[in-house]
Amino acid sequence: MNKGKIVFNNPPKIISTYSCVGSEEQKGPLGKFFSYCSEDNKFGKDSWEKAESEMQRLALYGAIKKAGLCETDIDILLAGDLLNQCVGSSFGLLEYDIPYVGLYGACSTCALGLALGASLYSGGIAKRVAAITSSHYCSSERQFRFPLEYGGQRTPTSQWTVTGAGAFILGDEGRISVKEAVFGISKDMGIKDINNLGAAMAPSCAETIKTYFSEGEKSPSDFDLIITGDLGYEGSDILKDLLLADGIDIRKNHTDCGILVYDRKKQDKHAGGSGCGCSASVMSAYVIKKMEEGELGDVLFIGTGALMNSLTMCQGQSIPAISHLVRLSSSEV
Amino acid sequence: MNKGKIVFNNPPKIISTYSCVGSEEQKGPLGKFFSYCSEDNKFGKDSWEKAESEMQRLALYGAIKKAGLCETDIDILLAGDLLNQCVGSSFGLLEYDIPYVGLYGACSTCALGLALGASLYSGGIAKRVAAITSSHYCSSERQFRFPLEYGGQRTPTSQWTVTGAGAFILGDEGRISVKEAVFGISKDMGIKDINNLGAAMAPSCAETIKTYFSEGEKSPSDFDLIITGDLGYEGSDILKDLLLADGIDIRKNHTDCGILVYDRKKQDKHAGGSGCGCSASVMSAYVIKKMEEGELGDVLFIGTGALMNSLTMCQGQSIPAISHLVRLSSSEV
Fold first, then answer.
1. Structural domain of A232
2. Which residues, numbered 153 to 192 in chain B, qualify as contacts with chain A under a Cβ-Cβ cut-off of 8 Å?
3. How far is residue A326's CA from residue A212's CA, in Å, rounded to a whole number?
4. CATH number, domain at A188?
5. How far is B332 from chain A (nearest CA, A)?
6. Do B71 and B194 fall within a single domain?
7. B307 neighbourhood in chain A, CB within 8 Å
8. How confident is the prediction for chain A on average, in pLDDT?
9. In a domain, B47, yes or no
10. Is A1 within a domain?
11. Among partner residues B2, B100, B315, which is closest to A322 by beta-carbon distance?
12. How confident is the model over B169-193, as a mean pLDDT?
């Protein structure tokens, strides 16, 4: 590799996936695809942060069980979330006796985990890797924006942090493989609006997609789906415009995890879903299912993350972003 | 691998290292080894957080320059720090046009970066990897404990977050190689004292060291140095006791980055240094230098991290910890 596409010599398969979501996600258009839902969003815990950790624990438990494996079969965990010091992952996965690597890529973390997991598998470092990611609306809002009790009004470009977690087990068996990846380069285009993260992330997403297509071997039309996560409505429009200006047209087969997860008319979620649990739950539940059923064969998934914190916002800094890409292919394609 | 030692088939060499520190570290016993010091700890910036980012930028710049390379020669950056959402790294490394992977391992991040970087190199995913880590006393104190202006009294077991950053470039050339690694399993032994992180981290460190020696091929006396980072005085004593109870005696060749970095008599740092910049600066400046000079041949470095945040402390949770190990060997040994 050199700032470009990594083609895995020995691409791992996705053995199993498992997703956990809250009530709003369950009510959305993809509700029936999710593996587990907590109606009160608390997952049996007494704080939102503990609820988020519990989602991670459940997601990994479900994925290991679905794969017919046990804990000792997994060589390494790659996990991350949005909470300060990634405590959603470190507390949630504490009971597992499995080597643990903490990642931080904001909402790109699901794609980052898959890309890194595939790298470790392909390079012969690990035989089975689990990648787990989560976010929780309630823990996230109070950390990044306002206490929920404020009931503050949201701007039209704001996104709604998904309450969700998704786990993937990579290894030898399965119909879907992780064939290629691009680790993104972080970009800062000067956006300072914490309520418009789609705009902050779209340029980095465009860069990563351009890197992927730069060798000219493939074009967007070769893919059944190009799915970003999570630019929402606002960021997706910007992404399509940016790419079109460079001669890359993804308008026909692009969608975004933040667009899919909620019903725009019935659910009051403004510019769509966000949070690293958004792409983790949508990919692990819906997209993987459609690939397994043969409806989708070749999919590009680009995870997009905004790398600010609440203090950098207070200090007036703009919002850097990063986007990591993985290509998922079903074996019948 | 399976929860154990990874022996790299194609171990990378350490091409170069570079370290940046603040004034307290400069005044300590290792002062003359550090590459760069900012007397006012601000590194020319107007906030402590920006100063920490600047340390990361300078450390990578210095390491690339010292290696006689340029930015385009580096395939991937692995970086992390203690700030919320790892903004020390994401803002600090923003100007580099290099694929970026954000890590979170608290004070184990330097070892995690080296272990993961060696994995990506050995597996043929990347030809040159840079691993960068930082912490800053002032940004860290106000985030995790109290505003500095309080002037609060510190308990005897508390450690002093090092203002420092260290960068390593891994690749084909150099006298020192990263031969083996152990990715740690997180452990929580119920410690709840934010001012005694050494005690919280020592058990996970003992576990990782036991994993390394579990195959019985090697013993502690085979190493010139077993260096932990950063247990400080308190945690180091606990570690030695824990290991001794399991028949592993590291008393003769163990030290800790947090013990080395400050003068116990002249500098009022209680239980020693901590922070992911502690092991990053001590390893990149002092230990690597001693290995290059032939004084040390075979070194085990175990990075130790406490995975809490200020909210989990407020919610009464205990402090999980993780420890990652790398074995560094000089080519003449």
1. 176-330
2. 182-186, 188
3. 10
4. 3.40.47.40
5. 27
6. no
7. 85-87, 90-91, 102
8. 96
9. yes
10. no
11. B100
12. 97
CB contact under 8 A, B85 and A82: yes
Helix H, strand E, coil C: the string for chain B is: CCCCCEECCCCCEEEEEEEEECHHHHHCCCHHHCCEECCCCCCCCCCHHHHHHHHHHHHHHHHHHHCCCCHHHCCEEEEEECCHHHHHHHHHCCCCCCCEEEECCHHHHHHHHHHHHHHHHHCCCCCCEEEEEEECHHHHHHHHCCCHHHCCCCCCCCCEECCEEEEEEEECCCCEEEEEEECCCCECCCCCCCCCHHHHHHHHHHHHHHHHHCCCCCCHHHCCEEEEECCHHHHHHHHHHHHHHCCCCCCCCEEEHHHHCCCCCCCCCCCCEECHHHHHHHHHHHHHHHHHCCCCCEEEEEEEEECCCHHHHHCCCCCCEEEEEEEEEECCC
Regarding whether A58 and A180 lie in a shared domain, the answer is: no
pLDDT at A331: 78
| CB of A69 less than 8 A from some CB of B | no
Lowest mean pLDDT among A155-159, A219-223, B142-146: B142-146
Chain B residues close to A3, C-beta within 8 Å: 72, 75, 97-99
Please give the residue of chain B at the shortest CA–CA distance from A313: B87
Claim to verify: residue A217 and residue A144 sit in the same structural domain = no
Report the residue of chain B nearest A183, measured CA to CA.
B99
Chain B residues near residue A99 by CB distance under 8 angstroms: 1, 3, 182-185
- Say whether pLDDT at A1 is over 70: no
Chain A residue numbers touching B98 (CB-CB < 8 A): 3, 185
Single residue among A171, A188, A208 that ends a domain in this structure: A171
Residue A68 has pLDDT above 70, yes or no: yes
Q: Does B93 touch chain A (CB under 8 A)?
A: yes
In a domain, B81, yes or no: yes
How many domains does chain B contain in total?
2
Same domain as B133, residue B31: yes
Please report residues of A whose CB lies closer than 8 A to that of B91: 307, 312, 317, 320
pLDDT of amino acid B3: 60
Whether A154 and A250 share a structural domain: no
- Interface membership of B209 toward A (CB under 8 Å): no
Nearest to A312 among B87, B103, B124 (CB): B87
Inter-chain residue contact B85 with A184, CB threshold 8 Å:
no
Same domain as B27, residue B65 = yes
Report the range of poorest mean pLDDT among A63-67, A153-157, B66-70, B78-82.
A153-157
* Same domain, yes or no: A132 and A182: no
Task: Tell me what the mean pLDDT of segment A113-128 comes to.
Answer: 98
- Residue B2: pLDDT over 60: no
* Residue A219 domain-assigned (yes or no): yes
> Which chain A residues contact residue B83 at CB under 8 A?
309, 311
Chain B residues 262-291 with a CB less than 8 Å from chain A: none
**Residues A180 and A164 reside in one and the same domain:** no
pLDDT greater than 70 at residue B333: no
> What whole-number distance in Å separates Cα of residue A38 and Cα of residue A26?
9
Quote the minimal CA–CA distance from B120 to chain A in Å.
7
- Among A152, A171, A190, the domain-final residue is A171
